[in-house]
Amino acid sequence: MLSSEAECMRGRGIMLMAKSILNAGKLDGTVATLIDALRAVGHRGGYLECAQHVEELFGQEFDISHCSVTDEANAELARAENAYDYLALPVMDLVTKDLEHDY
To answer: pLDDT digit string (tens) for 1-10?
Structure first.
């Protein structure tokens, strides 16, 4: 009976840790920024590709200054990716410490 209770607590503990990680406000904000940056880069890429097709079709240069996404989109994406890659969540220190122990 005691070993099954310990197993249950271990299982619930892992679920609680996972919820803490996934519900961290810092993670949520970082992921939202990353998604926005990815969308902007994708939008700009699509706009420029479409402009290229129009230029080929009509044989004249298409004005791309109307694109709402600037050349800075790639730099913003790089910053967002870096922030995500180096995100530090306090709960992860607890998870790492807990994983060091043998059960």
So the answer is: 445 555 655 6
